[in-house]
Amino acid sequence: MTTIIRKSQGKLLSVGFLLVGVIMLMQVVLPTISFQLWAWGQAMNNQILVSPIRPNEQVLGVSVENKDNFPAFVSSSAPTERIYDKFSLSVPKLKIQNVDVFVDNNDLSIGLSHLPGSALPGEKGNVFISGHSALRPAFSIKQAFFSNLTDLKKGDQIIINTPGSKFVYEVIGFKVVNPSDLSVIAAPEPTGRYVSLMTCVPPGLNFKRLVVLGKMI
Fold first, then answer.
1. Which CATH number fits domain 41-216: 2.40.260.10, 3.90.460.10, 3.40.605.10, 3.30.1490.20?
2. CA–CA distance from 107 to each of 101, 102, 113 (Å)?
3. What is the pLDDT of residues 97-125, one digit of tens each?
């Protein structure tokens, strides 16, 4: 009898481990499939932006460096002339409310980062902001504010508050690029005022980069 009970317990334990493995696998597979369907839908509707003007990489001083197996944009540009060290970002559609963005920062581990040398809010050019994504809320890290960027649509608002000023941008398009593609840093045209939100896709993985582009209204 004891042997039978032990065998039953062993089978139950094996089934339990198998179920846990299947659940963990689905946490990776489902977001990946969901993202691919989103990307195909965007392409069919011609929502994906054409490549913007490719910048002179030497002027920008931006390179791609591998940090803990994560290809990241790193800028060696001189610090932007500024009177504040951070500003706040709100995206009502995603329920992002007054999240700090650290100016002239290459370290995504502390939160949302403004790429050194890119425009400041309200200026001509492109305010380039990077942030982490995650698979699911249960598996996310505290700073994964950009996990749901694919939920945005054209016309949604991106709001930036700096000390004494408020700037409102409207989403105009999306772009999916390789991690080493620096072309997304430049504004689509030199006289406009833009903001870009960049994160890894599929959510929680770093195969590609999704860039949401907004224009000031």
1. 2.40.260.10
2. 11, 9, 7
3. 999 999 998 888 888 999 988 999 999 99
